[in-house]
Structure prediction request, 330 residues.
Amino acid sequence: MESITALLQSIERTGAATFIKESTWAFPMTESIHVIAIALVVGTIATVDLRLLGLASMRRAYGELSRDVLPWTWGAFALAALTGALMFVSQPVAYFANTAFRIKLLILLLAGINMLVFQLITHRGVAKWDRAATVPLPGMLAGALSLGFWIAVVFFGRRIGFTMSPV
Amino acid sequence: MQALAQWLAATPASRGIAGALWLIPVLQAVHILAIAAVLSAVMLVDLRILQVAGRSQTMAETARRFVPWIWASLIVLAATGLLLIIGEPKRSLLNPAFQLKMLLLALAIAVTVAFQSSLRRNVASWRDGAPRGVMMSALAVLTFLLWCAIAVAGRWIAYLQVY
Prediction:
């Protein structure tokens, strides 16, 4: 625990951290891009989740839709991770201690596990239900969990802003 | 505007929203989820216009799939936005970032209406595979950037407090 604190404190002393903390526009601008990136992650992944749940894009095959949309989800996720890291760097000790931040990271981890289970197990049988209106239960469950996790990520993300003390 | 903000702040509705500690963060989170739907719908329509995504779908199919989400989300955004204004009227109404956001929003709505009516009137020229031309591509990129600017102006409301 002590070594983590020391590491976080050393991050806080870097030039990048000081710049983001002291500049009037760097943090708000990074946060704005973070919101846009997360919005695109959640919205694009929702189109795939809703297809799995049988609620939208039913005339498109699952595989075709996901190959079309998910690269944009990943691009947006990379941008969200980068801007998120920049925000973290500006106050690493405070973020690390923030409960909403910890819960958000935990939910991100769960979303990742859900995706891995879906890709490695459920997706193997995709040929059988690719064009079907009703996706087998494990696929529907993955869609519902993904939708729920990402909505929760947005809620806890916004909660961080209300529970961090201003610099 | 100052008078309106002051009057709103004194209403029981405003006191109620501001007094419930959990309500404003929840309203903001719902607001962001609706922004997620709008931005993603606009991006997927624009990418279809640019012919870099959704090429298996016709322009009309793409619009039918995503444009209703823009309007539905705008209703959610207006409702949550209105409650946030009632809760903290001075924070928003007197804020240059908020005023710019409303201006850009009016422009974005006008562009969306124009796009829908163009789709209806010029079915032939929107048909699949037809090259869309430089103007149309530029308009698609600009429209997406316009919606992004609305989100940026929205976030800046928290940083440009004038009262």
Notes: The two ends of chain A are 24 Å apart (CA to CA).
